[in-house]
Design goal:
Shape: elongated
Structural class: mainly beta
Oligomer: single chain
Number of strands: 17
Order of helices and strands: EEEEEEEEEEEEEEEEE
Strand order of the largest sheet: 1-2-3-4-5-6-7-8-9-10-11-12-13-14
Radius of gyration: 24 Å
Length: 218
Amino acid sequence: MRRQRSQTLPTGQTVTHTYGLGSAPGASWPKVTTGIAPNLRCTRTVFDGFGRPLEVTTGHQVNGAETPVSKVKTEYTPSACSSIGKVLRVTPPRNAGFTSYEYGGTTVKTIDPMSKGKKFENDALGNLIRVWEPRPGGGPDYETTYTYTILRKLSTVTMTRPGKGLNPATITQEVADCGLLIPAFARNLGLSGRPFLGALSWKNDVGGLFPSAAGRAR
């Protein structure tokens, strides 16, 4: 199999591809170097035997001397539903903590370096159908749900967030065929259980986001 080695862009920059083998069994890496000599940028990605990225190193190269600037490492865990496993942990540049992943059936929970987690659920077709986000100050997680048409196009987005006072507000927004949210004045919205005609805007408070209605309930 032939592999690309170099090319020259209309801007005068050169793109050079070099290849090598990693230290782990089956591991290999391509390095892409771009720019105008002697100042170049380079990115090297190490893949394991399954073709999964293990390590991505970016940096610069001046007069042939390469200086790494950042490195991202990815670890994987065995999985009964995937022959190549699933992502377990991603370590950002400078080892500034890591993002870990926890799996449970159709859900996956991501935990960032600040120990903040967010959980996602997909249906059997791989569509995102629900997201749980931590509520500032504690309490039940915020929940957002997504529904789709039979053609797997996003149809509605439903969010429950704190409203004014003690009652939460539930907003259901339809999605146009072009993928854009249909303006509130063009569709009925469920706002705290009542059909609503108007426009919605968002404001911040200490508890998070709550909708501000600019219209009238019907």
